[in-house]
Amino acid sequence: MVDQLDPFEYEKIWRPVRKDFKIFQEVYPHHRQYDELVTQTELLAYLIRSYSVYEMTCGALGHPGGSFSEAEILAVMFNYVLKFDPTNPDWLQRDVLYLSKCHACPAFYAALALFGYFDLKDLKGYGSWDSFLESHPDSNTTPGIDIAGGSLGQIPGVAVGRALGIQRHGPDEGSRMVYVIIGDGECNEGSVWEAFMSAGHYRLDNLVFIIDNNKVQAKGFVAQDMSIEPLADKLAAFNVEPWETNNGHNVAELIDLFSTLHTQRRGKPNAIILNTIKGKDIGMCELNPNWHTSAPREVSMAQDWLMELWERDGRRLDVPEEFPRKLGEAISIVPPVHDNPDQIVEKQA
């Protein structure tokens, strides 16, 4: 019965389309599986946002803006594109997905949990001292994380090195791909452009840069703080092939793009300019720099957010209204494990 719905029994709402995550097989609009793939991937994006709200509120921290803007790309990557094995995260033939805009890890953690890397209920500990889900990813503690992240701009260079290493290993790793999700504000970092330049120089056609072009960074709008336009022209000048989406939240468009990219091994890296909306699907967050960092501090606000997500997407996807209500009721803000040892003073000595 709906009244007995457990919000963590996501299998009653969504299921992966693929039977074997180790295999990528193109699905085109004329295939009979296509409509199911699109619907299930939209459902996955909805769940990623919903569970992100849950974990950020429990942890009383997080970055909702960038987590919400990347929900669809994460859903497409895990439900369609990536080759991986949740039972063996270190499987040697896996594709590599780096989250360079690592502050947006709540959505990434939600995706990993939904695909069985760890229990969904573990999201409650996000950011806690005794949790393996750090506020920025740690490859030493979290299954499915390939590199620890902190300072922006560092991971694209690592992705270049990883792709180069895979390329040099030759035919035995010929089908492996490296993907790295980068923030548009992160592209203000010079190290990102060094990575683009190196990738183009080494002709790394097993590397795909995914730029979450959500228009907003920590303190304002990218176009005002430090514009990166014309981004496509700049990437092309670095010998990186640009692919610009019309709508980075259109799951069908993303599926079709990756079906095409699978054939684009032509001696140069690819870059997807993912036109998205910061804070997508929560009205007060959308294109609002104030919600780059701030997560809900009150359970009631998180419950309102969950209902808004349901009104926008869950309802049309036939998700029971009981799901966001029960998930909201499950939220409890996790207190710190340790007391604050510091004395509170008016000013520093």
CATH class: Alpha Beta
Q: CATH superfamily, please?
A: Thiamin diphosphate (ThDP)-binding fold, Pyr/PP domains
The secondary-structure element order is HHHEHHEHEEEHHEHEHH
Helix coverage percent: 25-40%
Shape: globular
Could you describe the largest sheet, including whether it forms a barrel? Answer: 5 strands, parallel
Counted by DSSP, the helix tally is: 11
**CATH-level-2 architecture:** 3-Layer(aba) Sandwich
Question: Structural class of the secondary structure composition?
Answer: alpha/beta
Number of strands: 7
Domains (count): 1
Structure characterization notes:
The structure is a single chain. β6, α9 and β7 form a beta-alpha-beta unit. By secondary structure, the chain is an alpha/beta fold. Strands 1-2-3-7-6 form a 5-stranded parallel beta sheet, with helices on one face. Mean pLDDT is 93; it is low at 344-349. It has a single domain (36-329), classed as Thiamin diphosphate (ThDP)-binding fold, Pyr/PP domains (Rossmann fold), CATH 3.40.50.970. The protein has helices spanning 34-59, 64-69, 71-81, 105-114, 155-168, 190-201, 222-225, 231-237, 251-261, 299-314, 322-329, and strands at 96-99, 178-183, 207-213, 216-217, 220-221, 241-244, 270-275. α1 crosses α4 (105-114) and α3 (71-81) packs across α9 (251-261).
